[in-house]
Amino acid sequence: GGGRVPPRRRTDMSFANALQEQLERFWAMLRAPTDDDRLATVDLPSPTGSGPLLLAKSRAGRSLLIPFAKGQHKVFREDRRSAAVQLVRRPLRLREGDRWFAELLCQRPELDSIFAAFCADVIIRITSDTSHQPADVAARTLARWRSLFSGSGRRLGPQQLRGLFAELVVLRRLLEKEGGDVLTWTGPLKEPHDFSRGEWALEIKAGAVG
Q1: Residue 109's closest CA among 57, 40, 68, 147?
Q2: Dihedral through CA 162, CA 200, CA 197, CA 51, nearest 10?
Q3: 36-40: long-range contacts (C-beta < 8 A, 24 or more apart)?
Q4: Which H or E run includes 124?
Q5: What is the CA radius of gyration of the chain?
Q6: Which of 2, 148, 157, 169 is at 20 to 30 A from 48, Cα to Cα?
Q7: What pLDDT does 150 receive?
Q8: Is 116 exposed, middle or buried (0-12, 13-18, 19+ CB in 10 A)?
Q9: Which helix (H) or strand (E) segment is 196 a member of?
Q10: 104 has which bridge partners?
Q11: Cα(197)–Cα(194) distance, rounded to whole angstroms?
Q12: Quick one: pLDDT at residue 1?
């Protein structure tokens, strides 16, 4: 099957939300097979160098299938550390022959909405990053989301709170300007700079007043 994804505008922050809603509609249209080993799929018009991305539904849950480059599945490391969302290798028989995919699988239906937002982020990152294999981009994105939600278990001190507030102020100003993009904010991901995109980067510093 096939679907239509809204035209992409990186400068329009509504794109991620529109993509998430479209993914939700695609999954709602799919009927999960009764066989444990079968998938109902729909192609996404977001091609990679190895073929299109697929949305799928099975008895295990919703998933996003990312095609491997030839032979990549043999060296790809699966990520099964989370009970809710996992990234695994999956063979799939298609009309043109057998193919291997990296499957992002959500096994908890109560998280379907969050999973749709996560998959929208994965798709945006895959289509904007042509220098890395799509499956590797998905693995890094999963690690970033896991890090974001797991946290360190420690409360932020005054200096950390000031720094976070300063970054949020800068983020808001960037989003208000033409070309603002939330994906430029890399501070929570422990990247070298708080904001970066292409050839520019920002490092934000905040101090106490008084």
Answers
A1: 57
A2: -160
A3: 36/60, 39/63, 39/92
A4: helix 112-128
A5: 19
A6: 148
A7: 61
A8: buried
A9: strand 195-197
A10: 64, 87
A11: 10
A12: 46
Q: Is 58 left (phi over 0), alpha (psi -120 to 50) or beta?
A: beta
Cβ atoms of residues 86 and 107 within 8 Å: yes
Q: Report which DSSP code applies to 71.
A: T
Tracing tokens 């990679």 back to the chain, one arrives at 48
**Tokens 């057998």 — which residue?**
98
At 146, list the tokens. Answer: 């896991």
Give CA separation, 106 vs 51, 102, 119, 188, in Å.
22, 13, 10, 24
Q: Which two tokens stand for residue 94?
A: 């298609």
Tokens standing for 162? 């000031």
Helix, strand or coil, per DSSP, at residue 171: helix
- Hey, what amino acid is at 98? D
Whether 178 contacts 11, CB under 8 Å = yes
